[in-house]
Fold these 2 entries.
Entry 1:
Amino acid sequence: QSVLTQPPSVSGAPGQRVTISCTGSNSNIGAGYDVHWYQQLPGTAPKVLIYGDNTRPSGVPDRFSGSKSGTSASLAITGLQAEDEADYYCQSYDRRLSGWMFGGGTRLTVL
Amino acid sequence: QEQLVESGGGVVQPGRSLRLSCAASGFNFRAFSMHWVRQAPGKGLEWVAFIAYDGSNENFAGSVKGRFTISRDNSENTVFLQMNSLSAEDTAVYYCAREVRNGYDYFDLWGQGTLVTVSS
């Protein structure tokens, strides 16, 4: 069981907005550690979407945004497109476990 | 272009060992800390191991501590993962990943992964 909790699945119609939550604790997100988000398309390696809670690497569309508050973080995707159908993971550092942690992952389905 | 290529995966019997390699190219390998991340079939990502850019520091997930070791050869631009006492729970695609150097701790470059299957 992951120390970072994500919903197993979310879905939305094309053009809609969806959010994916990542709930941690005072030993990771709540301790001030950065949250990063990755997108994993089927059969491929993960790719970073958001780093440092809310920063997009160059080349990532501004439809993707991140936020953090307290012990939780969120990834928002607006203007859903069919190509956004993928698995999404949050990642942070946990000081109690002294290691890098991933959330359990969320599968996004575009209806 | 910047690239990571893993190798060494395969089918191994429970209790045996396997050594994975990750060859880097297209960037200054010795300046970057490196990680191994694994993904069991149909499951999520699990961080496995870390090694500092100069090999001075290492860290492991609790699930592999005492069984796996990590090392690097900066002259050969390669990072290794030595896996001992393997069990079925270690079956996964193993990715090597580069940690950025911009003050954050995310992974900005990944290999394509190598599949390790532990089975009798």
Entry 2:
Amino acid sequence: SAVISQKPSRDICQRGTSLTIQCQVDSQVTMMFWYRQQPGQSLTLIATANQGSEATYESGFVIDKFPISRPNLTFSTLTVSNMSPEDSSIYLCSVSVHTGELFFGEGSRLTVL
Amino acid sequence: GQNIDQPTEMTATEGAIVQINCTYQTSGFNGLFWYQQHAGEAPTFLSYNVLDGLEEKGRFSSFLSRSKGYSYLLLKELQMKDSASYLCVPWGGSSNTGKLIFGQGTTLQVKP
């Protein structure tokens, strides 16, 4: 298993600003992912965070809007840049063990005014 | 590509049994996950099926037929706390991309 600490747990931000979400795992993991869950919707995969290289983004998501860092096997950050109200969502960090099972952080609830 | 088909909503009575069906089409298949998500919380792992057949874990059981692209989650002795969304998620394996793509899931409401 893996224990994931994600922060901030929630924040209220102004339009046009940027926010960085941190994800810390209690053990080294190979795969880390960032998901978004908009109100009333299911989880949407933003990107796979790759250690030491650029993240792999899903269709509809770009690095300029959602820059991701992963300097080591236990830590990653997701930045939501130039925010608009449409970015109001829950952002979830998750990690995968070799069996494929995903463990999730508590999520970061972001409200953009 | 991947396509997942589950009922959007289901309602059942406390103490009853409910079966949530899932059909899927995917390129590359290693196994199938079921996750539970309560409103406002992160998803939690329920089961993972690799082989055909039924896997039982307490009140919850999960079935897989690889040849039919079909799975179901069986919940027995329903409790009010079982009201949640249930997500059927096929997985292509760690040698693939390793990622999980979630569909809309089935929202189950348990009534007294």
